[in-house]
Amino acid sequence: MSSSSTPPPRFSLVVPVFNEEANVAALLQEVEEVLAPHGPFEVVLVDDGSTDATYQRMVDWKRQRGAGWLRILRLSRNGGQSSAVLAGVEQARAPIVATMDGDMQNDPRDLPRMVADVESGRADAVVGVRRRRMDTFVRRLSSRIGNAVRNAVTGDRVQDAACGIKAIRREFFLAAPRFQGMHRFMATLVRQLGGNVAETDVNHRPRAAGVAKYGIGNRALRGLRDCFGVRWLGMRAIRPVVRDEV
User: Fold this and answer.
1) What is the CATH number of the domain that holds 174?
2) Model-level pTM greater than 0.85?
């Protein structure tokens, strides 16, 4: 079938990956099995400057399976998760963009209903809430404190801002201010842009392989600074609405 006769995707799934060579094959296998009945779709894997065999394993999997739905982007250097997500969103072809982490802790089975809620107009963004987190006590506690501080500073109410699984209209992704860490503030940024946000419970799983890339030390102070920045952006936000055109 030629590319011109291939139907456009209903949604694009963007997955940032960094040094996940032990997970990518299982991740792609699961995504294919789960999303195949809900197509047409595309998956945009963004290799954020991995220093292991992540990129080559993704390429090998695509070639072996002939997966036309899979697109692989390789960034020239490691720029962080927000940069990788944004690179995927810019290349996405669907009006709805879903995201999930590449460590297999997010469950792709949550995606179809999240995408359907955006597609139906119920919300412009649907963001996940991990009710039963399969993380260490320290990580759960730091996340709870982080959410409380984030809400107090920004004036928003988001239950689980760091949850990686989301479904958002692409236009809101592209209109949002760009900064390192923006992926954790997408619910607030969508609201600042005049969009409607819904939260939904999602499954969370233990990390299957590899190591976590974030900890308290590399998130706390940076996250607090970002909170004040987002608050300032909200106070200065403009939302022009065209009434007529002649």
Assistant:
1) 3.90.550.10
2) yes
